[in-house]
Write a structure and sequence with these properties.
- The complex is a heterotetramer of chains A (277), B (280), C (153) and D (333).
- Chain A is α/β, with parallel strands linked by helices and 277 residues long.
- In chain A, α3 links the parallel β3 and β4.
- Chain A contains 10 helices and 5 strands.
- Chain C is α/β, with parallel strands linked by helices.
- In chain C, α1 crosses α4.
- Chain C starts with 16 loop residues before the first strand and ends in a 6-residue tail after the last helix.
- Chain D has an 8-stranded mixed β-sheet.
- In chain D, β11 and β12 form a beta hairpin.
- The termini of chain D are far apart.
- Classes of the chains: A alpha/beta (277), B alpha/beta (280), C alpha/beta (153), D alpha+beta (333).
- Chains in contact: A-B, A-C, A-D, B-D, C-D.
- At the B-D interface, β4 and β13 of B face β4, β5, α5, β11 and β12 of D.
């Protein structure tokens, strides 16, 4: 896997197709692979590929520091790739100006990998390796949420109070999310100040409601937010709740179909409304 | 060391007067609600304060009145953000919060016997004004005074009435300018940018110090003019405007290279500025 | 707004209900209830917004933050939106938002949605009465209020 | 002669402290891969072994992430300010890592620099810090590179060292530590072995000199461009202390509060005019390095870093001060 990956990247850099490759590098096994930005063909040796390459690199396509490096090629897994699809639907990237190198993935030793149905990239320009995508029934894909929702309502509230009590509002969840791209986040707007910026329970609930809901029908389940949270808060549950509903109510799975309409950018007159008086 | 009190809690000040200077600039005169506090309040020109409106927050402004004036202080702001927008609706008798004075000041003692050159652009008039009034009120201590002040348009000039009053003082020259296109039919001042106008004005640089405050672009182009005139870096002063929160050297926001602008600034000579990283 | 005919005994819990209503239908419906002298509980605080499509989910959270015991969001019936489709978009948002609230353990029974037209003064009266009595049964929304208490440091 | 105490005895002490109404903050296993300093509810929560270091720091005990500075009440033209009461609950930090405790005397400088921060100082007085010397390290630990070591006693009132058989050696360093354990320890002839600590990777006390020349280096972008601009490094850091002050509440009542802030946030230095002196991430990373290894030592004579490695440990992309400084040194700066 690694050799073809490096070779593809070398070729893309050598023939000038791209100016930078966004991929994974790693200093030592004890430290997780981190993003590297390769600009010289001879540096492709820095690229690595292993079962620790969990980070979703798509965020870097939006960062101005990386955009300044020129036309990019990006290394993605089948799951990361879904974020690219959403960015394309939301007109945040010009797909023709990005070379996508998809790497087949057998799983990164994370819970979500057990229910993954995107081992093999589908929309990449170059695909390295081969893996099989197996259909996963929705109950399995949302099993984590299903288990959580077996708890009665007050227990859920108690759970989130204990979890969000630890949130320090470092905003790693936002900064690492490939779909959080607002120039100025709503928490940073102060005219008027809509949310408390304080990392109190009140401010934290408000923040996490906003963060999650601004991803409603958009989140592709890459779990970057949960993965990067220094306080280990399981933000995935919040994202899953809306993804499950979007799939159940609107048949929409974010990032699986570039032609699909955005869930909250569209509507149907038939949308369910039992809960409305 | 100072006694331990809540260094973040402001004193209450009463609004005595609000003057609208331009379409988006106002100046406000305030005095301490607590008379005793007002009595021991002293500051030096060039220092700043943290002015606040409760429910909206604090903002940093230079105290633009002269330190010779007792019983009140003045500050001036442009309507740009959350706090200044709220301050915009201040009326007489309203109450605001004030902490200060903070920061260093213009070395007026060191300038005794010197010719003074004040150069400013736009909203930078207030931090010059305190020093100008101070110099005029101690007129015999200083030599010739030249004031070059420019704004984009005539209606953007701040403290415009005072410019005329200053010109009436002995050995004071006021050169006022507006950017090309910003003049009105009755405009009698210069037309041009501050650096070019300064150069044209042929201000004698001998035994002079200059205080230059304005937008970064004005400062950038004015400094070479001053150098050409023969002013040394240590005789050119400016006041930095880094974003601040605490004002007392704690919150880390205004840190620029080896200095905290709120404590070791905001006033720096060009010589000092050149030793700072370009991070302001 | 008129006071309910039968005031509850003093000291009994009086729910605070925030109603975010659209300018074109529900607000006029509320107005009609008033001009027709239809009495409904005084527990509701009406906040008028241009369209249900404008009713940001943050407003619902904000209402709980400032001590609401229940929230009503109400606007034009499907097909009647003054801006053509604001209410359809809103409906989609609420479908997903209710799931998020449920996952967070926030009582979705305290967040109500309704379509009330300008002609439905009677319905407005009924909805407000229902919500008030339901909320009275639920009791004060202590759980969210506890979240908003500033912990001692 | 040394003083020793058994781990069960320590736990009994925790119970006693809690009964006395004191707040006990200690490493707690929050979930399988997460150890964090938390206020404990019972003695069994306290971790006394089997962890490298918590992912947060003890600075929260003296400098909480959120605090009210004062409250305001507005009635017409009448405004009343109600000062926040000074803290008065005694706190005991148990089993803190030396790299956490060492941060407290470092923070004392800035919080007492001419203007003394009353709430900070009060919390400092109310806090007793009991450290636990390290015996294990991970790839991110670098205390030995900043001149510290696994049994550093700076900032701690008493140091515990694991004797390996369920007992701990107790070394008092202050009267506070002495009185905390008075009558609770037994004399012994045994002393704990001291671990040499993580391998020394650089002498960061000297890095200030190279930074003197490195500000304008064009490679800052290359060294730091994977930074995502979150505050995980700053908030997990025992020494980072930047904060924000905002008013929360309405126009009639509310409070001015102080919240942790981080220099990596794009808004941190943004002027109302739109001008931002540190508009790109590499400038913000550079600022963090300079503040810790150049500005603070110049001003207060100490590095603003204890080598805990939390910045890299918490970083979504394994950045942090050491990787940046190593990249810099690798390129001869």
């Amino acid at each position: 896997m690694l050799q073809p990956l490096r070779e593809t990247c070398r070729r893309l850099l050598q023939d000038g197709t791209v100016q930078v490759v966004i991929g994974y590098g790693q200093a030592v096994r004890a430290v997780e692979p981190y993003p590297v930005f390769i600009t010289a063909p001879d540096d492709v040796g820095q690229l690595v590929w292993n079962e620790q390459c969990r980070t979703n690199l798509v965020k870097y396509l939006l960062r101005k520091e990386i955009r300044a490096l020129g036309k990019p090629a990006i290394v993605v897994k089948g799951c990361d790739e879904r974020a690219l699809v959403v960015l394309q639907q939301e007109l945040q990237i010009d797909r023709s100006q990005i070379v996508v190198i998809g790497v087949a993935c057998d799983g990164m030793d994370e819970p979500r990998c057990e229910v993954c149905d995107a081992h093999q990239p589908r929309f990449a320009d170059h695909i390295i390796g081969h893996a099989t995508n197996e259909m996963q029934p929705a109950e399995r894909r949302y099993a984590h949420l299903g288990e959580f929702l077996e708890r009665p309502l007050p227990d859920r509230m108690a759970y989130w109070k204990a979890e969000l009590e630890r949130c320090v509002k470092c905003y790693a969840c936002r900064q690492a999310c490939p779909l959080c791209y607002c120039e100025r986040c709503i928490v940073e707007k102060n005219r008027p100040a809509c949310l408390d910026t304080s990392a109190t329970l009140k401010g934290n609930f408000a923040w996490h409601i906003v963060r999650a809901f601004h991803l409603a029908g958009r989140c592709v389940g890459c779990d970057q937010c949960s993965r990067v949270c220094p306080e280990g808060i399981d933000l995935r549950l919040l994202n899953l709740s809306m993804a499950r509903e979007a799939e159940a109510s609107f048949g929409h799975r974010s990032g699986t179909d570039p032609q699909a309409e955005l869930v909250l950018g569209s509507f149907s007159q038939q949308d369910q409304e039992q809960f409305i008086r | 060391m100072r006694p331990m009190t809540n260094i973040y809690q402001p004193d209450l000040m009463e609004v005595l007067d609000v003057q609208q200077q331009t379409a988006d600039v106002k100046s406000v005169r305030v005095r301490f609600r607590d008379e005793a506090r007002g009595d021991d309040f002293h500051f030096r020109v060039g220092q700043f304060g943290m002015f606040s409106l409760f429910g909206y927050g604090e903002s940093t402004f230079n105290i633009c009145s002269s330190s010779n004036w007792k019983d009140f202080v003045e500050f001036c702001f442009r309507r740009t953000g959350r706090v200044t927008e709220a301050l915009w609706s201040l009326e007489k008798n309203d109450t605001i919060g004030f902490r200060g004075p903070y920061g260093n000041s213009y070395p007026m003692d060191k300038w005794v016997g010197k010719n003074l050159i004040f150069l400013g652009g736009g909203i930078a008039m207030p931090p010059l004004r305190c020093a100008i009034w101070y110099a005029l009120e101690n007129r015999d201590q200083f030599g010739d005074i030249t004031i070059v002040y420019g704004a984009r348009r005539v209606q953007d000039l701040v403290f415009r009435q005072e410019l005329d009053r200053w010109a009436e003082y002995d050995r004071v020259r006021v050169v006022c300018c507006v950017d090309p296109g910003g003049e009105t039919p009755d405009w009698t001042g210069e037309v041009g940018f501050v650096p070019a106008v300064t150069e044209r004005a042929q201000i004698p640089a001998e035994n002079a110090v200059a205080l230059v405050i304005g937008p970064p672009v004005m400062i950038k182009f004015t400094l070479p003019v001053l150098a050409k005139m023969g002013l040394a870096d240590r005789d050119i002063y400016t006041s930095l405007e880094n974003r601040m929160k605490c004002g007392v050297g704690k919150c880390g926001r205004c840190n620029c290279g080896p200095v905290y602008v709120c404590k070791e600034g905001p006033v720096f000579t060009l010589e000092q500025l050149k030793s700072l990283p370009n991070d302001y | 707004m008129t006071t309910p005919a039968s005031n509850p005994p003093a000291g009994e819990f009086e729910p605070k209900i925030v109603a975010y209503v659209c300018n074109w239908c529900t607000y006029l419906g509320a107005d009609l209830a008033g001009t027709n002298r239809l009495e409904y509980p005084a527990n509701v605080r009406i906040i008028r917004l241009p369209c249900t499509g404008r009713i940001d989910f943050n407003l619902i959270v904000k209402a709980f933050e400032i001590g609401a015991d229940a929230v009503l969001v109400s606007g034009c019936h499907p097909g009647d939106c003054h801006y053509t489709s604001g209410n359809y978009h809103a409906r989609r948002r609420w479908i997903l938002f209710r799931e998020l609230l449920a996952t967070l353990g926030i009582e979705t029974g305290r967040v109500h949605f309704a379509w009330i037209s300008a002609a439905e003064g009677k319905k407005f009266q009924q909805v407000i009465s229902e919500i008030t009595s339901q909320t009275r049964d639920l009791g004060p929304y202590r759980a969210y209020r506890e979240i908003c208490e500033i912990c001692e440091v | 002669m040394s003083q020793i105490i058994s781990k069960p005895a320590i736990r009994r002490l925790v119970e006693l402290w809690l009964r006395q109404g004191k707040r006990v903050i200690a490493p707690v296993q929050v979930r399988p891969n997460l150890v964090s300093y938390q206020p404990v509810r019972g003695p069994d929560q306290v971790l006394l072994e089997g962890f490298v270091r918590p992912l947060n720091s003890i600075k929260q005990v003296v400098f909480p992430r959120h605090e009210q500075l004062f409250q305001y009440r507005v009635r017409g033209k009448q405004i009343d300010l109600l000062p926040a009461p000074l803290p008065d609950i005694e706190r005991i930090v148990l089993a803190a890592r030396p790299c956490d405790a060492a941060a407290l005397p470092i923070l004392d400088h800035v919080f007492n620099w001419e203007f003394r921060d009353a709430a900070y100082n009060r919390r400092r007085e109310l806090t007793t810090v009991v450290t636990l010397a390290c015996t294990e390290y991970d790839a991110h630990c670098f205390c030995t590179s900043v001149g510290s070591r696994p049994d550093d006693t700076r900032g701690s009132d008493a140091l515990l060292l694991d004797l390996g058989d369920g007992t701990l050696e107790v070394r008092h360093t202050t009267d506070k530590g002495q009185s905390l354990f008075a009558g609770q320890t037994q004399a012994s002839t045994r002393t704990a072995p001291i671990s040499p600590g993580p391998e020394r990777r650089a002498d960061l006390r000297r890095v200030s000199q190279s930074l003197e020349q490195a500000f304008e280096r064009s490679e800052w972008a290359a060294w730091t461009n994977r930074c995502l601009g979150c505050g995980a490094c700053a908030f997990g850091c025992p020494t980072c202390h930047c904060f924000d002050m905002v008013d929360e509440g309405g126009p009639t009542c509310g409070a001015r509060v102080r919240n942790w802030d981080a220099c990596q946030f794009g808004q941190f230095t943004l002027h109302a005019s739109g001008h931002n002196p540190r508009g790109v991430q590499s400038q913000r990373q550079r600022q963090r390095i300079y503040h810790k290894f150049h500005v603070y030592p110049k001003k207060f004579g100490e590095l603003l870093c204890t080598g805990c490695g939390n910045c890299t440990r918490n970083c979504p992309v394994s950045l942090g001060v050491l990787p940046v400084l190593e990249a810099m040194q690798a390129e001869g700066a």
